[in-house]
Design a protein that fits this description.
97% of the residues lie in helices and 0% in strands. By secondary structure, it is mostly helical. It is rod-shaped and about 105 Å long.
Length: 73
């Protein structure tokens, strides 16, 4: 009887250790994913700002060309 209880205790301990290992790995993966998302968000904000700058520059050129066309009429 004591052997069965000891065996069950060891089995439960082993299973809990395996579960703890996989939870730890999942936690590491979530942290890595959060870091990647932060980097991606930062990159997207930089790209958006750069695109807005290009858009503004193109809008200025279009306005200038429209003024030139209007003056020639």
């Amino acid at each position: 009887m004591v052997e069965v209880i000891a065996l069950m205790g060891m089995l439960i301990t082993l299973l809990l250790s395996v579960i703890a290992y996989f939870l730890k790995q999942a936690h590491r993966n979530v942290l890595a994913l959060e870091h990647t998302v932060k980097e991606l968000k930062s990159s997207l904000l930089w790209i958006k700002a750069r695109m807005q700058g290009h858009h503004d520059l193109l809008r200025q050129r279009i306005d200038l060309l429209e003024k030139r066309v209007d003056e020639q009429k």
